[in-house]
Automatic annotation (TrEMBL), chains A, B:
Keywords of the record: Cell membrane, Cell projection, Cytoplasm, Cytoplasmic vesicle, Decarboxylase, Golgi apparatus, Lipoprotein, Lyase, Membrane, Neurotransmitter biosynthesis, Palmitate, Phosphoprotein, Pyridoxal phosphate, Synapse
Entry's Gene Ontology BP terms: gamma-aminobutyrate shunt; gamma-aminobutyric acid biosynthetic process
The protein, known as: Glutamate decarboxylase 2
Similarity field: Belongs to the group II decarboxylase family.
Cofactor(s) named in the record: pyridoxal 5'-phosphate
Matching SUPFAM superfamilies: PLP-dependent transferases (SSF53383)
InterPro entries, per database record: PyrdxlP-dep_de-COase, PyrdxlP-dep_Trfase, PyrdxlP-dep_Trfase_major, Pyridoxal-P_BS
Function of the protein: Catalyzes the production of GABA.
EC number: 4.1.1.15
Organism: Gopherus agassizii (Agassiz's desert tortoise)
GO cellular component: cytoplasmic vesicle; cytosol; Golgi membrane; presynaptic membrane
Low complexity composition bias: residue spans: 1-14
Topological relation to the membrane, as annotated: Peripheral membrane protein; Lipid-anchor
Enzyme class, first EC level, given as a word: lyase
Length: 585, 585
């Protein structure tokens, strides 16, 4: 149940009131608060009025409003918080919030109470004694609560309850033992920045409506290009809604660069194109090819070595083969940090091949890009500076809240030529400021969410060195895990050697399988182990880690660490938990 | 400047302390607060511990931490807020926040102080006495503040200052006099929901990591399909990053429906396709065609009547023409609510033509979809129920925070077939729950932001009837504006008759042009009027409204109202302001 008036402002508590005889009355609260604090009322007024601004022209009387429900007070603070203690959300609706006439107090109180719910969730997220997940099957969850949408409004009390219930069943993605995805953790500055972004509620297409954010995108993308190693940070780029879309952009731009006529004439007017990527690359390369009318058959999967790295000689062979058949190789998408193995393709060798055959080199560093922040680990991306485009998702290894994905392009202006449609109703050419800041027409999107601010603010708060420390720590933890299990009874590594990224891939082999011959029966039993352990993890809610098959390798665990909250003890816990949940299998 | 400790918890103010002799010491604050309130400390502990949960295993000692900076207190509340009064952000960094050991107090205090900044901005946003924008040219804004990213971290004090500065130069998109875009306003429940979404920080691809949000997407999309009029709300859909991407999805699915082999074989394997849309339609239809390898030349623009509605006879003529030339018409994208005129294409007539020629009918109701919530206005979309797909952006007319765009598809399963790539590392087939809830593979994106919660929570708070009231009010205001200016001296309407949506398009003709002949010179002067008035509006910061040319019509104002905060007085103000700023031109 939502407790009405449970915010930080609610003073009229059951015990210990400094003014017992007036307890519970709004006036008493108002006076007492001012006596004690120099004025919570003053504080609220400062919030309402800002820094020294004085009056506030309230909404016209014909606005949606509820003036009757919040009668005027006679204290000296206008508007004052005297009614706060009287707020009963059971009788209030969203129409009582701003822009309702006299809606300030109710609004601030409501938002503060939502914030209390969120702060409580934040603290719990980091608490190892709480569950990562309170798991319910879909049909159970549908029955657990009434989630339906109806004609009639709910009260604000019910709205607060909705918030609590939603978070009750949410996954605590910031929990130190949540390892399920490449994006884990909950960064406090990033969270604050995302709240601010929501509050500013604008759109990235023009400087006109997002002046600061447009400039911050410019500053941040330039800095990212510097980290990649492009001279002076020159080039182009955009924040896009996720790595899959960033990779699709790269493919789109590569095609346009080679055959600009494709924009008007379509694929019908150009030769048959081929793209190359490794068999361990992300599925978005094929997804992009399907969408762009290139077709998945035109994505050639290059063989990988046992560590999941693209084999350059196989790439060159397939390129030559394609050319002999009259196809046009237009794109190589190398991967820096594959999804499952965390492998880094040999970018220098791939760059040489791309140069030799004049092919656009894209690097999908969605997962591995973060290592560019680390002096110790960035060598793994050597050669990325020779790429024509790079996907880099700060929402993964850098812990920026979802979503934050950048596509960086070495050649300036290409994105604009490729995507612009010159809509005169959005990009007027006779505005009074420098139109080079109206960057919206280089995007596939029209409206575009502000994804830059959380990255920018986190970068300010941590500095590059702070990101470095965070990332180095995650890699150190992965090595700790690897060292602990590589020779431990009951574990088999999926590939040999120290992990290059934080991906540690392994099978847990329960005692019953340990002495079995390595035959089909064993495989058939082994492939069921990880799913069962995972299901149990979720039902207990103690931790979450991903598993999958890959090629001829049956289901194995893929542990990844991108959560700065994780510690050695959490790694130890994971091992113990896998053994606890899997020993009877 | 950020004021350290300026949150709601900061009590040790300069005046009126109830315990003057201990003023300023942490202990005094702690005791006094408990005496007065029954415990702000208790409140904080409740936040920290949640509902009755007791202990909290703090992070391992090897974590990033700052235990030295927050020494243990001897009061009875563990962890307590006694140090709050001592928090000096000038000496603290992001590494002092959670997951830092003993980081709870600092974290809660910091987040609360960020929240205070946001609440102040929210209140100001609705205050008509504040500016909509504090405009600075890009080069000024770059010099106004140091926005650069560096190696070294900033203090939390500087981070709070960054937040204040960012908001200082932001556009107040919730301001009652901000009319610049189709998305305006700041809904309090939507904002709260977006904060919650940020805090939950998860991803839409699987039920596993977003159980509640996946279910809410299911519930909400079904409800939207019901509003469209598809029996039982059956069908499919997705929330996508904006209307342009939603329209691109429609084109992608329409192509796949007709030629499923395109997914593997690409455009080379299928005949030359043609899409049809009106000359007033959104530029994203062409943008999508360019991206998908169809080419912009294959988008045929159908003529509109004087109100901006597609002329069905012209559509049919162009379809027949295309077929005669051997092209394959595969998509008609009708518009319900055009960007500039707010026109509704005649959907019933278009549906008949699509049926006759077996063409996919898409309705881009990004802007007009909201009218489906209104019993008074939904007739304008009659025929939408016959569409194969519909784009509907609740972030426009329904005032949901950015971004919230839905693509609805009548045929179930088609999106999945079109886009799925079966990545085994994401969509494992041997999970322990009903896999039909792992809907991520029907998206073009891999990671996908949670855009549904803010719409769902607003719908719960308002009910359908609340959205209806809000939308009806905006339409009523548009009519009010139209009635005020249609015969007013100095105004010329761009098209005759009452607006069908909230778009009111007009020229303001300054006195110097009123008696001029309607010749080229007048046009050349008139086209400069709106840009100058707009530039002045932004420099004064009093209001913002969009202008653009269209076809042979020179720059005119396009007023739109989607902001529930706007009132009759704001419309009056706009008219006065245009006249004030334009009378000398």
């Amino acid at each position: 149940m939502a407790t009405p008036g449970s915010g930080f402002w609610s003073f009229g508590s059951e015990e210990g009131s400094g003014d017992a005889e007036n307890h519970g009355t709004a006036k008493a609260w108002c006076q007492a608060a001012q006596k004690f604090t120099g004025g919570i009322g003053t504080k609220l007024c400062a919030l309402l009025y800002g820094d020294g601004e004085k009056s506030m022209e309230t909404g016209a009387k014909d606005d949606l409003g509820s003036a009757e429900k919040t009668p005027a007070c006679t204290c000296n603070n206008k508007p004052c918080s005297c009614q706060k203690a009287d707020i009963n959300y059971a009788f209030l609706h969203s129409t009582d919030l701003l822009p309702a006439c006299n809606g300030e107090i109710t609004t601030l109180s409501f938002l503060q109470d939502v914030m209390d719910i969120l702060l409580q969730y934040v603290v719990k997220s980091f608490d190892r004694s709480t569950k990562v997940i309170d798991f319910h099957y879909p049909n159970e969850l549908l029955q657990e609560y009434n989630w339906e949408l109806t004609d009639q409004p709910q009260t604000l009390e019910e709205i607060l309850l909705n918030c609590r219930t939603t978070l009750k069943y949410a996954i605590k993605t910031g929990h130190p033992r949540y390892f399920n995805q490449l994006s884990t953790g909950l960064d406090m500055v990033g969270l604050a920045a995302d709240w601010l972004t929501s509050t500013a509620n604008t759109n990235m297409f023009t400087y006109e409506i997002a002046p600061v954010f447009v400039l911050l995108e410019y500053v941040t993308l330039r800095k990212m290009r510097e980290m990649i190693g492009w001279p002076g940070g020159c080039g182009d780029g955009i924040f896009s809604p996720g790595g899959a879309i960033s990779n699709m952009y790269a493919m789109l731009i590569a095609r346009f660069k080679m055959f600009p006529e494709v924009k008007e004439k379509g694929m019908a007017a150009i030769p048959r194109l081929l793209a190359f990527t490794s068999e361990h690359s992300h599925f978005s390369v094929k997804k992009g090819a399907a969408a762009l009318g290139i077709g998945t058959d035109s994505v050639i999967l290059i063989r990988c070595d046992e560590r999941g790295k693209m084999i350059p000689s196989d790439l060159e062979r397939r390129i030559m083969e394609a050319k002999q058949k009259g196809f046009v190789p237009f794109l190589v998408s190398a991967t820096a940090g594959t999804t499952v193995y965390g492998a880094f393709d040999p970018l220098l060798a791939i760059a040489d091949i791309c140069k030799k055959y004049k092919i656009w080199m894209h690097v999908d560093a969605a997962w591995g890009g973060g290592l560019l922040m680390s002096r110790k680990h960035k060598w793994k991306l050597n050669g990325v500076e020779r790429a024509n485009s790079v996907t880099w998702n700060p929402h993964k290894m850098m812990g920026v809240p979802l979503q934050c994905s950048a596509l960086l392009v070495r050649e300036e202006g290409l994105m604009q030529s490729c995507n612009q449609m010159h809509a005169s109703y959005l990009f007027q050419q006779d505005k009074h400021y420098d139109l080079s800041y109206d960057t919206g027409d280089k995007a596939l999107q029209c409206g575009r969410h502000v994804d830059v601010f959380k990255l920018w603010l986190m970068w300010r708060a941590k500095g590059t060195t702070g990101f470095e420390a965070q990332i180095d720590k995650c890699l150190e933890l992965a090595e700790y895990l690897y060292n602990k299990i590589k020779n431990r009874e009951g574990y088999e590594m999926v590939f040999d050697g120290k992990p290059q990224h934080t991906n540690v891939c392994f099978w847990y082999v329960p005692p019953s399988l340990r002495n079995m011959e390595d035959n089909e029966e064993r495989m058939n039993r082994l492939l069921k182990v990880a799913p069962v352990i995972k299901a149990r993890m979720m039902e207990y809610g103690t931790t979450m880690v991903s598993y999958q098959p890959l090629g001829d390798k049956v289901n194995f665990f893929r542990m990844v660490i991108s959560n700065p909250a994780a510690s050695h003890q959490d790694i130890d816990f994971l091992i113990e938990e896998i053994e606890r949940l899997g020993q009877d299998l």
